[in-house]
Amino acid sequence: MSEVITEYRNENTKNIDLLSTIDMVKKMNEEDKLVALSVEEEAEHIAEAIDVIAKQFLKGGRLFYFGAGTSGRLGVLDASECPPTFSVAPDMVQGIIAGGKEAFVNAVEGAEDNFENGVKDAEVLTDKDVCVVISASGNPKYLLGVLAQADKVNAKTIAITCNSKAKIAEDAGLVICIEVGPEVIAGSSRLKAGTAQKMVLNMLSTGSMIKIGKTYENYMIDLKAVNEKLKDRAIRIVAQIAEVSHSDALSTLLKCDWEIKTAIVSLTMGMDIQKSREELRKHAGVLRKIIFQNV
């Protein structure tokens, strides 16, 4: 079996165990600086993926991340942060890791090599959904099983990998390949490869949510104000967008159960809470449409 790039030895760090701690840190940081540049090279493919995901969301579809090990954990992490950030249903973005929930905190040996389990886990997919498979090497049989099942039900497929010769790149409809080069520690793809994957996942989820109206300008208008920090943020967002005092923002938020968009519509349009909610429903929750139509 030929060696993949994620297993190569990094000549820049071959003597890292002899360096002082500060020099070791600097060496790792130098390698990390290459990640953003590698991601930049895939900007067009990332943008294309965002458009695919947003289009399926608007059809009632869901976004699924599949991965093994570090890649799987990153997918679960990104999915778990979507409901509190954008107030979407928990099933709208889901992360599935090879080996199940146990694999999130403990390594499950051989999980990535099981094609059949990939097929089984992907049985949740429909033709409205988007299936994103994530892997540094791009060769886990588990993900090939996922893609086989996704293709069977005509789900949209996207592969995120750090290896241009990845097998998942051959089967996915769209490929995002971030070649970050050999790791600081040979084969430890939780490093640069993991950072690259996290950056791309941030873009996919955030970009697709922006496209379907989950933000206003760069404000997080659909967040759930479930603690004091988020309530303070909600007050500031409403005050800034509606151009009112913090006390007026708080008063209105209390009337509408901390619904940020409802409060903004009520304050800017002079509507009561119920009418504001109806206006938002009429415009699919997209605040831009309401404000633009009435300026």
Account of the protein in words:
- The protein has a five-stranded parallel beta sheet with strand order 2-1-3-4-5, sandwiched between helices.
- Strand 3, helix 7 (141-152) and strand 4 form a beta-alpha-beta unit.
- The protein is built from 14 helices and five strands.
- With 295 residues, the chain is of the alpha/beta class.
Radius of gyration: 22 Å
Largest sheet: 5 strands, parallel
What level of helicity do the residues show?
40-55%
Kindly state the number of beta strands.
5
Whole-number mean pLDDT: 93
Q: Which strand order does the major sheet show? A: 2-1-3-4-5
What share of the residues does DSSP label as strand, in percent?
A: 5-15%
How far is it from the N-terminal to the C-terminal residue, by CA? 64 Å
The number of helical runs is: 14
Class inferred from helices and paired strands:
alpha/beta
SSE series: HHEHHEHHEHEHEHHHHHH
Q: What does the overall shape look like?
A: globular
Low-confidence parts lasting 5 or more residues at pLDDT below 50? none
